[in-house]
Specification:
four-stranded antiparallel β-sheet, 7 strands, 32% strand
């Protein structure tokens, strides 16, 4: 369902990290993915991100997730410790054409974004009916 695993997936993640720039310090948005007979499910960890900054798009079988976490430190303050990444984050995943991205749905709850993308009709398993006929007799 997800394309480009292994080395190509690693290359995609590296490219995403480089595109993010220094503000996100190379942080990758963590994700889990699974599927059943009806859909592919993706969950992304987006702690501390306001829902209004989260954007999901699909184009040419590529899913793009962008989100932003502003710094909580006031501009006139001197940071003492800054370990949590801030800035704009992007994650791209190549999707299979067996998914119906037009029917995708998403929900954001407690810092976790859950995306459901149904399987396309042509990708769902289906049973093929076998018609009955007159048994043929073999002759020697």
């Amino acid at each position: 369902m997800l394309a480009r695993t292994g080395v190509l997936g690693d290359l995609d993640r590296l490219t995403d990290q480089l595109e993010n720039g220094a503000s996100s310090a190379g942080t990758v948005i963590p994700a889990d993915a699974w599927r059943d007979d009806e859909a592919l499910y993706l969950q992304f960890d987006l702690p501390g991100m306001d829902q209004s900054t989260i954007e999901l798009t699909t184009e040419h079988q590529t899913l793009t997730l962008t989100a932003e976490r502003p710094s909580p430190i006031p501009a006139d303050a001197r940071p003492v410790l800054t370990e949590r990444p801030t800035g704009r984050f992007t994650r791209r995943l190549a999707l299979s054409d067996a998914l119906d991205t037009a029917a995708a749905s998403a929900a954001y709850d407690n810092g976790v974004l859950t995306l459901r993308i149904p399987l396309a009709a042509h990708a769902k398993p289906r049973k093929i009916a076998i018609s009955g006929g007159t048994p043929k007799q073999l002759t020697a």
